[in-house]
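Hey,
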Amino acid sequence: MKFPFAKLWVAGVMTVCMSAPLIAQSVFYSGTTGNERFYCSYQLSNGDILIGGKADNLDWVTAGTPIVELSVTCGDGQDIPEYDPLDAFQGKYAFVIQTSADLSSLKKVFHFPEGYGGAVRDIKATSVPGSETGDIFLSGLYTNASNSTPAQAWVGRLDNNFVNAAPTKMSWIWTQFRLGGGKKEERFMQNWDVGSDGKVVYFDYKRPSAGAWGAVYRLKTDGSVRDTVPNWWDHGPYCVSLKPANGDLRSENQADFDLVTSHSGVGKAKKKGKYPHDYYFQGPGGINDNGGGYTGYRSDGKAATTCAIAIDRRNNRMYIGWNTPVANNTHDFEPNIMAMKPDGELIWYSHLYSGWVDENDNNIVDDGETQQSPPDHYVDGIAVDYSKPLSSPDIITLARSHGNAPRNLWNGTNSFHNRFTGTNGNEHLCWIGRFKGNDGIFVNASWQAEYDPWSGNFGAPYDDPVLDGWPDHNAGWADLKTTKSHSLTCDMDGNVYVIGNSRGPVTTSNAYIKAANPLNGGAGCWTDFVRVFKEDLSTLAYSSMFATSCDTSSGNGGGNVKLHTVLPVPGGLITCGYHTLDDAGEVKGGPLPVLSIPSWGTSTVEGEQAMAALLTFSGAQSTMHFDNMSRAGNNVPVKTSVTPDGVRIVTADREEIFHAALYSMMGKQLIAFPAEAPGAITVPGDDIVVGNYILRVTTSVGEHIFRVMISE
């Protein structure tokens, strides 16, 4: 939509905090012997940081820090669930702390009453990242998973969002909710998200067995009951089942079942069927002939036990990823991702690899065009890249391959790590893929698979100096080691952030702690690491391990710090987690090297203890952070009018305009334009679509920052 056919509304004056990149790095511990853990983080629009976690006591809180006990009873009359005292993943106090943007000061501590909530595991909001903070949502665990019982979870909305007012209780809470991903706590998945409408979309399941099921649901805005979604299939329609045998996500007529389309725009890769579960059957829904689909794969009647969910809060489109069990002994799991409109209508889906390559382009599955034995594939995360405009969004998918085969996850092009290498197929290896959000077209991918230090067959070093002389993944044929990742997110420039675990990860020249480079001899230890890929996945901007006491001659040691969250901030990132104990209950390894310890932190480790780090690096996002918007609309110091050339903006006092630019709500500059005459500019309409933007005008008396809404 071009400006001449649009209206521009200046919503109000915004006071602005133009944050310079954060300079002082900080790494420290917090806590003493109370089994403290930090699990999640979120940045408010006033710059403050929220960190959620658990502890056995609050003795570690700095004297004088305000401590607020949230009500055990929510606004809907329900109580926060009690925690399981025998579960090491839970604490007597589930808390959210509020710190300054640089972590230097602890402003407030909010916690549920002792014995309730277990742990705060995630913090999300209804707002688009970079804009004013909306309603805040928390989720937590109050029991852990076992071999027969999924982890019990809760999710709900706080009554206040910390910026406009401090919270006092949960407005509502929903406890009919289980987390997938297995027994290890880092595998608890991102299986819920919330839209700008305040509706939570979440996954719930029963363990895989004869009566297993798994489905995605949506809650009403008040959290009272499950919402009905017009184009979802099952039970109401209030859910979409991720169990193929149920008939969900399957075509209902032969024409849809026979539909052949390009598979994510990758070469001659094609897919058959309008819906993802058509893949496993020989006819549309109602025909439960489980002889297998066109690839020969068939459902084993079980449902997915893991699911990743992300909602684009600009339009509430839902992106969902899951893994479907397979029955015919070729492999165990098939990956799927799909995009749905807010009403549940399917937009597109992808299996992330070429199950069928139509070599002769005849839309018929000929002999030899499919592979019967791909490796197991899993979807571990989905993130929306808000740096891309709403008219052409991107999503990022975190996936994983167990081994290698001719039909593995798609290779990248000119990416950091283009393909699987080596001969060791019994490894779990991560993969990050970028897709177009409107149609599922595959853009690019990079593997995230660390080296087996004893492999040999390494390539020559990368040319990029940031990669610090590490061997080029695309130049050699080295064996790779199991690498598992979580906490996928993007910053305002589209860079991709992730936490991983592997042996001796590739680390950059700017790393906080470097791993042993196998080209220089020595072996890296097992460790968690935090990594940042550039937007096009061509290289790394940052990668650092988090481990101490590593023996580079044997590769022993390490594995003593668990990372649980990564948060992009101007100039760098924040990551949090905890230091672990060994099997004897003693502190494992030595402490991390600390930097700039705040008053509420410590340099020593006395037990299982929370850890936080602010790390800066070149190439990190450098973005405007906007403070709360003034509601005094009559104080807007500009006047606007629509002209054939665009929207004309005139300053109220005819101040001389030096520069003006239009930014996305994430703070990314879209266009800049010069002044035409003193006190006036015209914002051109090319390539600007209906939506919300930030307008920054620099004049002779200072800067004016406005939120603007462009509408038809």
